Amino acid sequence: MFRLLFLCLLQTPVESDYYQVDYLQPPQGEVLEIGGMDFLSDGTLLVSTRRGRVWWIDHALDPNPQAAQFHIFAEGLHEGLGLKVVDDQIYVVQRGELSKLVDLDGDHICDRVEVVSQAWGMSGNYHEFAYGLPVDADGNFYLSTNVGFWSPEWWHGLSRAPFRGWIWKISPQGEAEPWACGARSPAGLGRDAEGNIFYTDNQGDWMPVCGLFPVEKGAFYGHPASLRWTEAYGNGAVVPSSTEPPATKRTPPAVWIPYEWSRSTGNFVSDLTGGQFGPFSQQLFLAELTNGLVFRCMLEEVQGRKQGAVVLFRQQIGSVFRVRFAPDGTLFAGMTNRGWGGYPPGDGIARIRWQKNVPMEYQSVHLEKDGFRLGFTKPLTKTPQVEEIAVRDYDYNWWWDYGSPEMRGRSLQVEKLELSADGRSLRLWIPNLKAGRNVRLGITGVGLLHEELDYTINQMPTGQLVQASVAKKVQPPQERAHDEEGWLTLTWGNPWDAWTGEGWQLVDATLDPADPTKFLLSPGNGALVNVGPNCKDFRSLAEFGDLEFRFQFMLPEHGDSGLYFMDRYELQLVDDPSACCGVIGAKGPRAKGYRGPGQWHVVEGKFFAPRFDKEGNKIADARFEEIRVDGVMVIGATTCDKPTGGAVSMEEVPMGPLRFQATAGLAAIGDIRVRALTSAGQEVPADADDLAWQDFAFDQELGTNFELQGQAVLSDGGVASLDFISQDGAGPAWSIALNHTVAGKARTGSIGTHLLRTQFLQPEIPFTWRLRSRQQGPQTHLWLWLNQILVQEVVLDQSWADGHVQLRAIAPETELHFSKMQWRGLPSQSELGPVQVLWAQGDPLTQGWAMSGPGAFVVDGDVLKTTGGMGLLWYRQRQYKDFQLDLEWKVERKENNSGVFVRFPNPGDDPWVAVHHGYEIQICDVGDATHNTGSIYSFQASTSVPTLEPGQWNHYRLRVNGQHYQVFVNEVLVNEFEGKRGHHGYIGLQNHDDTSPVRFRNIRIAEILP
Amino acid sequence: MPLFQQSCAPCHGEQGDGHGLVALDRPARSFQTGAFSFGNTPAALFRTIEHGIGGTPMPAFAESLSAEQIQSLVQVVLDFGPEVKAASAEDAVFVVEDRPLAIRGTMDPVADGCERIPRGLLVGGLDGLSFQYNTEDLRLLAVRQGGFALRKDWENRGGDPLQPLGHILFLVDGGHPQSMWVLSADNQTSLPLFAQLKATEALAEEIVVEYDLLRQGRPIAKVRERGRLHTRGGWIGIQRHFEVTLLESMAGKIQLRDILGGGHQRQFLAHGSARWVDIEPYGACLIAVKETPSSNPKASFDVVQELYFGQNPSPQNLKAWEEAE
């Protein structure tokens, strides 16, 4: 009974049971951003910092961490990312100098900084750090130099000064040799137990993850920039490509470190404490800055080279950058994360001490030709079952993009295992292990403190040496395409994390030839298919409002599914071309997009969520726009006035998940991507930059389309508001709160119930502000900027014809100063009337058009083609005043000539009337300035001619409003012109001559409402 | 902020804790730890949101968000994280108090049209003067008074230039100084000597800058140089003191180059090597150079250079100056 009770009280062991952490207390107010640490023979600790100081710390080993005494030994150094004591002489690696710090008069203050070497190049780039500082058996120092990063392509590391991205070997006399290259951000160096020098590199371009690399003369570690200084590249003459992998042979790391364990590896030390730090003698301990931990590395020699395993050791320390063993076996951890962030604390010195008890951990890992032999610190509590051992392998891409995910993963099986009699050695037989892979192995159920290890197989222990690296050369990634920007790929990697969906399987699917109502499935990751029994709908965990979407689907015969937007509005997926990709209850597809069972289709479109007012009443329906299947538009636009059948609820909401239906029939879906549309589908109107600001006075009548800006200062404890008072209102129509410091009241920038969460303004310090108000129908749209940051975007469900603003102090003794106030009125946004199709197909002369002059326009389906000329096809039904005209045109050769005429009077038989009295927007890609495409012919040149190759359709948009003409070619604004001719007139197209066949289609116009 | 909910929260989580709902091959950054691949400065975050991180699921938002929207997201992202401990203005300003200071750092060009100085040195003595050097071929760039230095590289990721404070008393050669020392074979040829920094050392009141003079890559002499404020006969100027030790015997003479370089109007006076020079913008300037042989005339000697600005070069004044210590 007694013993049972005792067992129940035992808790799962944790790291701090075995390794305790405490922190030294630097002097009040001092921030020690540690770059290097070492001990004098008397136990004095010396640390160098990123602020160029070296601190002398007495009693750093005292059990009481507060007993340590700090004073500044040296300052004025240029950083100091490595410190080494050799025979009680102090060496520091500064950004530009390896220095020896000498105390001439014994007062423990450095009097003299001697230059050992300044051999490496520096361009002055901010990222050109230098790190160090191990010493080899002959007393040579090793340090490393970071590459630099510049705008605009700041993700490419470059070596713009000699031997940056190199490891240097420097003798105590200062003879410096560039030793090895290919480094990117070589943040840490150290020695293993045998005295071999290694360095750590950090994930980024050409570095898939962090790694521990052996420093060998002439090695190349993978980042091409530093190759510049090798003979093969003309000793500096030739700059290596930032995007093409070089042919130079690479030296692999001894270990690649899993990204989730280490994102910014610092330095490492080997345990030569003779057992004072626990059962890991001679193993390596590495610093990890971002995750704030120390992890452990067990190396072995395989085919003459070191490789091995990493495993977690002690977490939740702080942003550890440097580790160093003290004479008493304590592991000191120096911290800093300024500029990158990381697990706090981000500065200072931690001490990690072994509690003299033995944790249950991996103690050794040996690769066999057919598996592993694992050693443990203590006997395993039981023999593990094969099912309790998870093994997989994977590799990485070696490319210029930032890091690499784990690639080409395989699940591996433990065929059999054997535990030694003493329970401390486990032999695993795992077939299909191979070189050029990382193996992740985890054993549960045997009481391991850290269950997983990761082993880097550069070579198998027997057999031929293999050329393949773990980091595989792959096709360089595409240039980042514009249309990829902002898209979230919901099925990247493991889809299950983003969706719930019992019964769906990730497979490769094709139509079963024996039964076309079914799929033939094979292992793969091309499709999600609802094949399992009791399949539930596939629902995203995230919720969305307005979005653009893109996904793929394939159906078998009689296949049936649907994509519910916001869990409510169904886009149908069904094996029926007349219904597939229609919106249920709203509109069917107007064109045949669905091509039949067994074929993959790409569906794209836009969805807009319903809109609600402050009280929650719906003020706009959900709608779809521009739904296309494989590029074919099947629905131009449609609204859903209520959720469709099968919706999760008939109640409508502003955001909701996506859901693929599982229960109607079989379907395969894949590659689901969405892009949220900003500002609830509306964009912030561009600044009307040509509108001047005027000085503002508080009695100014403002209307509701205006902007105000100025400067302000608010006192500590001040509470006030800027109120908009409408002409017929008693109190404020709306108010902007001004309150930097008083809790419990709405803070600066809050508008009504729209409270501002982000607070960054300080009392007594001036700030700038800008307010824009726009009336949009019955609503008022407000934007507020503070210090040029947009902090509020609010839609009020009322609008006011006119009003003014005033300031109101709320708390007594509020001091509020507004200065430099300016305002300007904004033009009300031009609204377009309904779109009129001027011509889509058929004979234009029977649809309101007339021909003036020679030649003709020939109809070919939905295309009009010019012949002969010079003539004019004009729309005689009516004249237009202010409008937006859209059409498409296509030429056969760049020289082809045509044009669009606007605002001309009735030309009768004479096309020259249009030339003399209207304006022509030219079509001819090879004209001179005022005579090429987009120009107002003879009056004003277009700023560019962004037309596509002849044979491709281009798009013209002309906006004519008052005397302001805007010309857009393929959505690029190429001309803005102030006209002087008529205010209204007819629209026409030119046929120029027989050698200029130009085709038109899709001619539409919408009037601009006053 | 709705913008964060729509654009960021699906991957980074509504609380910015990295636990968004979207599947990713690598965990999304947790903003709460405050750590970022490309740095946690506002400029670095802006760029990351603008351009994305290629090869990772972090997309670019340059096309879908305006600069103002991205700027507002930067603030939201930073707000999730721990307070960034920045060096305060007081921390980063260096003042010479009871010990002379030597500071190394990258420095901005000393004048328009000059180059950035990746390896710079600023030394300050108790008399309030500071001497700024480029140490890649050791040359004096400028002498200042009235403030010492601001360590701007204590912000962000480091790497910003050190900023000398105070006003420039004297800018050598308009910011493009020649080599400080030459080897003269005869009175015609003078071979500029490369100066390699070897050490900086604190004396009681000023810093000594120690360097080797190289000829064809080989050190031929060692120099210990220091500078201070100096008064003589009521004039206040700068005195630079050089101890030169020859490392080998040689034909030719090592000489301190005329600090003003060539091309200036000068008048030689009948007072040893003192001379008046009219130079912009200092006006009249007296330079005196005196070589004092040390106890071992073959192996070492001292040079003292004095610079006085804007003095009245009348014969009486000059006499007073000469007669003073």
Could you characterize what this model shows?
The complex is a heterodimer of chains A (1010) and B (325). By secondary structure, chain A is mainly β. Chain A has three helices and 72 strands. In chain A, strands 20, 21, 22, 23, 29, 30, 33, 34 and 35 form a nine-stranded mixed sheet that branches. In chain A, strands 36, 38, 39, 41, 44, 47, 48 and 50 form an eight-stranded antiparallel sheet that branches. The longest helix of chain A has 8 residues, at 2-9. Chain B is mainly β and 325 residues long. Chain B has two domains: 2-80, Cytochrome c-like domain (Cytochrome Bc1 Complex, Chain D, domain 2), CATH 1.10.760.10; 92-325. Chain B is built from six helices and 18 strands. Chain B has a ten-stranded antiparallel sheet with strand order 14-9-10-11-12-13-18-17-16-15, with no helix packed on it. In chain B, helix 3 (42-51) crosses helix 4. The radius of gyration of chain B is 28 Å and the shape is elongated. At the A-B interface, strand 9, strand 36 and strand 57 of A face helix 1, helix 2, helix 3, helix 4 and strand 2 of B. Strand 9 of chain A pairs antiparallel with strand 10 of chain B.
Question: Notable features of this structure?
Answer:
heterodimer; A: 1010 residues; mainly beta; Neuraminidase; Immunoglobulin-like; Jelly Rolls; 5 domains; nine-stranded mixed sheet; eight-stranded antiparallel sheet; 3 helices; globular; disordered N terminus; B: 325 residues; Cytochrome Bc1 Complex, Chain D, domain 2; ten-stranded antiparallel sheet; five-stranded antiparallel sheet; 6 helices; 18 strands; 14% helix; elongated
User: How many strands appear in the DSSP assignment of chain B?
Assistant: 18
Helix content percent band of chain B: 10-25%
Provide the succession of SSEs of chain B. HHHHHEEEEEEEEEEEEEEEEEEH
Q: What is the spatial order of strands in the main beta sheet of chain B? A: 14-9-10-11-12-13-18-17-16-15
Question: How many helices of chain B does DSSP assign?
Answer: 6
How many β-strand stretches of chain A? 72
Give the total of domains of chain B. 2
Distance between the termini of chain A: 91 Å
CATH superfamily of the largest domain in chain A: TolB, C-terminal domain
Q: What's the story with the biggest beta sheet of chain A?
A: 9 strands, mixed
Structural class of chain B: mainly beta
* Largest interface, Cβ cutoff 8 Å: A-B, 102 and 87 residues
**Helix content bin of chain A:** under 10%
Query: What is the CATH class of the largest domain in chain A?
Result: Mainly Beta
Q: CATH topology of the largest domain in chain A, anyone?
A: Neuraminidase
CATH architecture of the largest domain in chain A: 6 Propeller
| Secondary structural class of chain A | mainly beta
Strand content of chain B: 35-45%
> In angstroms, what separates the terminal alpha carbons of chain B?
74 Å
